[in-house]
Structure formats: C-alpha cells, structure tokens
Amino acid sequence: MTTADTETKTGTEATTTRRNFLKLVGGVSAGTVITQYSSEVATALEQASNGSKEVVWLQGQTCSACTMSTLQGTSPSLEEAISQFKLDVTFHPEIMAETGEAATEAMSSSPDILMVEGAIPTKIPSAATFGRTEDGHHKPVVDWLLELAPEAEYVMGIGTCACYGGWQSANNGAPAVEDFDEEGPWMDANVTGAKGLQYTHREDDAGVLGPDFTANSGLPVINVPGCMTHPDYVLLTVATLLNGHEPDLDEFNRPKAFYGPLVHDQCSRRGYFDRGEFVEHVGDGSGKCLYNVGCKGPYCHCDDSVRLWNDGTSVCRNVGAPCIGCMEPGFWDRMTPFYDPIEEQGVALTDVETAGKVAVGATAAGLGAHAARKAMGYGDAEPDEQDETESTE
Q: What sequence ranges are listed for the domain Cytochrome-c3 hydrogenase C-terminal (predicted)?
C-alpha cells in the first residue's frame, strides 16, 4: 500500500469516525448512549478530567436546576468517566472543593470550553457576582463573562436563562409602553436587565456578547436550552467539542441533533391529536392530546419525547403535563399562561388563533396529519408550501 493510499484510508476512517460520533450524539435511545461509541465519549470527558482540557462553568441568575440536571446524567458504560468529569471541571461555584480565593485562582483564564448557566444581569450587575475585583469590590458575573469568553475555544449557554434570558428577563405582565397609563401597579419589565449570552427574545435587543461574537473556534455561542436542560444534551455536546467535532447548529445555535425534532411530531399522544381527541383539563387521566390545555408541542423543538428524562423513564406529557415550550426563545413571556389553549395566547410562528383552529378542524374532518401540519405551519412542510396552503385557505 502506498503512502497516498494510507493517507486516503486514514482520512476515510477519520470521516467515518466523525460521522459515527455525530450519529451517536443524535441517537434517540432512551436514557442511554450507543455502546459501541461510548469509548469516544469517555475519552473526551477524560481529557477534561486529567487536565489536558480545561472547562469552566459560570453561574449567573440561576436556580441551579441545570447543574442538578447535569449531575444526574449517567450511562452504565460511561458512569466513571462522567463522574470524574463532573468533579474535575476547573471552576464550578457549587461543586468544586475549593472556596474563596482558592476557587477563583483554580479557574482557567483561557478555558477550552466556557459553560454559562443562568441569565446575565446588565442593568443591576450586582444581582449576580462572585469573587473580588482588584480594589476589593464584588465582581459581577457579566465582567467575568466578558473577560473569559474571548479567551475560550468554545462558549456554551447551559439552559434557557443563559441562552435567551429565561424567566428572569420576563416582562412581568407589564403592558406595552404605549399602554402604560393603564392602572397598575406594575413591576418593571426585566428588572435586572437579564440577558442571554448571545440572544434575547426581543428582536431589538441582543445578548451580552452580541450577535457577531465567535469564540476562538470560530463558532458562535452554542446554546443548550431547556428549563432545565437535559443532561444528555450537555454532556454529549461537551464530549463532541472535546473530541474536536463541531455540532451542526440550527438558527438559534442549538445542536440540531437534539433540537431538530418537533415535540409534537414525536409525542406519544400524537394519535389523539390526529383524531381530534383532547383532554378536558390538566390532570385528566384519559391520555388524550393536551393541545387544549396549553401544550406548546407544536412550537417546541427537542427530542425528549423519545430520549425521555430520569434515565429514560418518562417525560412531561406522560404524566399529563403539557409541554410549556421551555426550549424556545421567548420562554417565559411567549409561553404563558401555561395551561391556556395556545390559539388564545398569540404564541406564534403563524397566526395561531386561525391556524390552530384550522389544524384541529382539518384533523377532525379527516384530512390527515400532513394537511394539519401544513395548516399550522410546522412539521415537514416547506415555507413556500405553508404559504401556498395559507393562501388557499
């Protein structure tokens, strides 16, 4: 075999390995990782554990649910590697052994991966601080972020708060500015100026790092949203990056492997939607579709209907709780009230009040799931196909 042949074979093997690894990341095996690729994940996490790769995890305005979720991540063949990874992150304010100055001194100043959990307060930076500045004042998380992000190879937003601002950035029921003479009292919208790393859910407002930010890898902030996010999403994305692979991202910079599927299309209750059979109230044990009690499945993208939670045992809809759209930009404001029918909320990828009724009506009339998907403007219909459907109706 010639040198050229060897190089060609090596390149082919590398390509195959990369494809296999990315296939692993998109695997839908509930609560597990495909055994034949687990060694690649273990190797990636061990790089962080032995110090050859450095990971820093910052926390802004957070309830720590994403940390708790990630700590629960497990897989029989990866348990030891995952356990070591979770213990050896160079900085995490809740799980590291060091405290005080020793903790901040242990933090890498140029991490391979900077992971950020929680929204970043910008109007009241003192709402999230740790450590001290040179003059002895509490140091805001926003300052740590602005220092570390440009030095990092990759930056990840962990959970919806870090990705889009989350509930900390909500409008708090405040009316629009032009209507502010209405009787109150109203709490100010987004009191602390909470923002995501690169996005907010307001079109005229960018995240802290701005829309043009890229880490040293050339990638934007990699968003892994959810309230809380799924441990598989965090650990497998980290393993992908540490192994030198770049995840394919969607328009909101989420890994498509996890956030490509529509919740509605994979839901175990989907057959009831197609037949027009719906529960009458939250807690109804009939097992029918939850659309009429506010389910945001038609507007939320993630694969948890198949991947499931709690080591592959269940998901929200299985216990009668509608999807609340926590993986999407605009959660909280766009998705509340949680239990009101979505056509009454103006949630909206399309004219929901009209499209939702058309979809349900079309289904009940026996026009089929595909027609219903096109009528609602979701699923596998192409944009021009959606427009054509809407204009016809």
A: 259-339
Which amino acid makes up residue 161?
Answer: C
Q: pTM of this prediction?
A: 0.74
Residue by residue, pLDDT tens for the chain (393 residues) are 444 444 443 444 444 444 444 555 555 443 344 344 567 777 777 777 777 788 888 989 988 788 878 777 766 445 566 566 665 676 666 666 566 777 677 777 888 899 999 999 999 999 998 888 888 888 999 999 999 999 999 999 999 999 999 888 887 665 555 544 555 555 567 889 899 999 876 766 789 999 999 999 999 999 999 999 998 888 888 888 887 888 889 999 999 989 989 999 999 999 999 999 999 888 888 899 999 999 999 989 999 998 888 877 889 898 889 999 999 988 888 888 889 887 666 554 433 333 334 444 433 333 233 333 333 333 333 434 444 434 343
Does residue 295 have a known ligand-binding role? yes
Superfamily of domain 263-392: Cytochrome-c3 hydrogenase, C-terminal domain (4.10.480.10)
> Is residue 300 a known part of a binding site?
no
- Sketch the domain layout of the chain as residue ranges: 3-258, 263-392
CA 321 and chain centroid, separation: 19
Residue type, 387: D
Residue from 74, 381, 54 nearest 242 by CA:
54
Residues 6+ apart with CB under 8 A from 11: none
Q: Report the distance separating Cα 16 and Cα 43, nearest Å.
A: 18
Task: Output the DSSP codes for 15-58.
Answer: HHHHHHHHHHHT---TT---GGGHHHHHHHHHHHHTTSS-EEEE
Conformational region of residue 226, where left means phi above 0, alpha means psi within -120 to 50, and beta covers everything else: left
Known binding residue 227? Answer is yes
Cβ distance 256 to 248 under 8 Å? Answer: yes
CATH of domain 3-258: 3.40.50.700
264 known ligand binder: yes
289 is in an annotated binding site: yes
Q: List, in order, residues 6 or more apart from 264 with CB less than 8 Å away.
A: 270, 273, 295, 297, 298, 300, 378, 379
DSSP letters spanning 192-256? T-EE-SS--SSTT---TT-TT---TTS---EEE--TTPPHHHHHHHHHHHHTT----B-TTS-BH
